[in-house]
Automatic annotation (TrEMBL):
<dbReference type="InterPro" id="IPR050810">
    <property type="entry name" value="Bact_Secretion_Sys_Channel"/>
</dbReference>
<dbReference type="GO" id="GO:0016020">
    <property type="term" value="C:membrane"/>
</dbReference>
<dbReference type="GO" id="GO:0015627">
    <property type="term" value="C:type II protein secretion system complex"/>
</dbReference>
<keyword id="KW-0732">Signal</keyword>
<dbReference type="GO" id="GO:0009306">
    <property type="term" value="P:protein secretion"/>
</dbReference>
<feature type="compositionally biased region" description="Basic residues">
    <location>
        <begin position="55"/>
        <end position="72"/>
    </location>
</feature>
<dbReference type="InterPro" id="IPR038591">
    <property type="entry name" value="NolW-like_sf"/>
</dbReference>
<dbReference type="Pfam" id="PF21305">
    <property type="entry name" value="type_II_gspD_N0"/>
</dbReference>
<feature type="domain" description="GspD-like N0">
    <location>
        <begin position="117"/>
        <end position="179"/>
    </location>
</feature>
<keyword id="KW-0472">Membrane</keyword>
<dbReference type="InterPro" id="IPR049371">
    <property type="entry name" value="GspD-like_N0"/>
</dbReference>
<protein>
    <recommendedName>
        <fullName>GspD-like N0 domain-containing protein</fullName>
    </recommendedName>
</protein>
<feature type="region of interest" description="Disordered">
    <location>
        <begin position="51"/>
        <end position="87"/>
    </location>
</feature>
Length: 277
């Protein structure tokens, strides 16, 4: 009987202990389950993660700046850029030799071998005869040749320059002369023919003389039409100017001295607008 009573008491105690332990196990299970399936945000943990991320980024800007320095250290090669501050770029390079030239001045006569030419309203036939005899040349005159000559030389004209003067006298009277082998032919010409043609790179070779020449002049900063209008007043009435607008170039035929005067003026006008800055 005693044993039975003791067993009942032990069973009751065991049940009481188990009843006391069951709620504790249920709470721990719920807590673990809640940690895994919770729907709220743990602000403390998020703040820790943000602090770690910002701490890791502190080194990145320096790396990026180093990359920029290496990549932007030298700019990529590009097209050549002209220095617009250079004065040489503002003037016509073909007329550069004319910019420093001064207007032609008369020089005093010098003694030496030569001839004096003094004619007042002289008939052109008489002048031709005198000069041709001095030059020792044979000639044929066209019957249509007419005119009078007025010339007075202040000094003796060298014999080696006399033919150039002779040709200019003829040109002024609307005449011209050409070599036909053993003699010269003097004739009426609508426009006198040049004795030489100078290309664009030979402008600097021009010398004051009475020769009739042709000069090719590229225009750089003006239009060729405007350049033609500007130089016309400085050329003789016997001049011929051909305008080539496609090449922006002028071809000028006139007496060499007249062309020099015209190009000297043109060299000061055919300049870039940057020259005034």
């Amino acid at each position: 009987m005693k044993n039975m009573r003791n067993m009942k008491i032990f069973s009751k105690l065991l049940l009481i202990v188990m009843a006391a332990l069951l709620p504790l196990n249920g709470c721990s299970y719920r807590n673990n389950d809640l940690d895994q399936h919770k729907t709220w945000m743990d602000l403390h943990k998020i703040s820790q993660k943000v602090d770690k991320a910002t701490a890791g980024r502190k080194t990145r800007p320096s790396l990026l700046s180093a990359k920029k320095k290496t990549t932007l250290k030298k700019p990529p090669p590009g097209p050549d850029v002209r220095d617009l501050s250079s004065k040489e770029d503002t003037i016509n390079p073909y007329l550069k030799s004319m910019t420093g030239q001064k207007p032609q001045e008369k020089t005093a006569g010098v003694a030496g071998e030569g001839v004096m030419l003094n004619f007042d309203n002289a008939d052109i036939y008489e002048v031709i005869q005198v000069i041709a005899e001095t030059l020792n040349i044979s000639y044929i005159i066209d019957p249509a040749v007419k005119g009078t000559v007025n010339i007075r030389s202040g000094k003796k004209i060298p014999t080696n320059q006399l033919f150039v003067i002779f040709k200019k006298i003829l040109n002024i009277n609307g005449l011209d002369i050409r070599n036909e082998g053993d003699h010269y032919y003097i004739y009426v010409a609508g426009k006198p023919s040049p004795t030489a043609i100078y290309n664009k790179n030979q402008v600097g070779e021009l010398k004051p003389s009475a020769r009739l020449i042709t000069q090719i002049v590229p225009i750089m900063h003006l239009s060729s039409a405007d350049a033609e209008k500007l130089i016309k007043p400085y050329l003789s009435k016997h001049s011929v100017v051909y305008n080539l607008p496609d090449q922006n170039t002028l071809i000028i035929s006139d007496f060499e001295s007249q062309i020099i005067d015209a190009l000297r003026i043109l060299s000061r006008l055919d300049v870039s607008s940057l020259s005034s800055l």
